[in-house]
Design goal:
Length: 299
């Protein structure tokens, strides 16, 4: 009989404990395409965590701690917050809305070796990720709801295609002396944030390949263009009196912070594939030096 009383008491405690767990309910609302900068997750666009607390269990619950993790598409850990130094969040009876920056706790994240770029820039690379949230009782350290996971995506943008001047085309000196119009396509898909295009033009000097000019020369035109995909350049150069001039140009696409947009090839630094063009001066009669016979690869 004595043992039966202990068994009944233990059963009541277990039932009470499970009932207490049921009084805490959590729902993670995460945007399927949150901002690429983790520091922007608190602006409301990333989502929020909703926690409903009620019943007698709430009397003994002082607060909670949250541990978050981000995994890449291969389920490899990207970063994980330190639960020991996590903030304690006090819950009110009823529904509690917790901003995503308090859930993420960026200052408390520990980045793996796979996330060197993320640790340096705070910006996620393109790809598919899983965001994991674990909620613990701040007093006992006991996990009080099941782990919540949400999948989200970071867009792999397609950089603009350079349209005009057409690659390896030659412009008339009289026209080019007054104005040269550069056109390119838009970033695909269009970003929800402000996008800036940095147009750069480099002159190709004698004994230089176009790529050598791009990498080593100072640009003769370096300008920033907002909200449009064209720019009219009025060069202040003595074009008409020279035999020919050759140029290489590219467009670098920047996000609202002035950083290259997210693309799979991070070495491109957001620069579109460059194009070359030339201008034939009045002295440029030799078509092997100026025109259709020009060797762009070696000149």
């Amino acid at each position: 009989m004595k043992h039966s009383k202990y068994i009944i008491l233990l059963t009541l405690l277990i039932v009470s404990h499970l009932k207490g767990l049921g009084q805490i309910q959590a729902n993670l609302i995460l945007n399927s395409n949150p901002p690429s900068y983790l520091s922007d997750w608190g602006n409301g666009r990333a989502g929020q965590l909703l926690i409903t607390a009620g019943g007698a269990a709430q009397v003994d619950l002082i607060g909670i701690k949250i541990r978050t993790s981000i995994f890449d598409s291969n389920k490899d850990l990207v970063c994980k917050s330190n639960i020991n130094s996590a903030q304690t969040i006090a819950l009110n009876r009823g529904q509690n809305t917790i901003r995503m920056d308090r859930v993420l706790q960026l200052e408390n994240q520990q980045f793996t070796a796979l996330a060197n770029n993320l640790a340096r820039s705070g910006k996620l690379s393109p790809g598919i990720y899983t965001f994991s949230v674990e909620i613990f009782d701040a007093n006992t350290g006991r996990q009080i709801v099941n782990t919540i996971e949400r999948v989200f995506n970071q867009i792999n943008y397609v950089l603009p295609y350079l349209l005009s001047p057409v690659d390896k085309s030659w412009l008339d000196a009289n026209t080019a002396q007054s104005a040269i119009t550069f056109r390119w396509s838009s970033l695909v898909p269009l970003s929800q944030e402000k996008t800036t295009y940095r147009l750069q033009v480099f002159e190709i000097l004698n004994n230089q390949t176009p790529m050598q000019a791009l990498r080593s020369n100072q640009p003769i035109l370096d300008t920033y263009v907002d909200r449009t995909t064209q720019y009219i350049w009025r060069p202040n150069m003595n074009i008409k009196n020279s035999m020919y001039n050759t140029f290489i140009w590219t467009v670098q696409t920047l996000d609202y912070r002035g950083e290259p947009v997210n693309v799979q090839d991070q070495n491109s630094q957001g620069r579109s594939e460059p194009r070359v063009f030339g201008i034939c001066g009045e002295a440029g009669a030799d078509k092997t030096k100026c025109g259709e016979g020009y060797n762009w690869q070696f000149n």
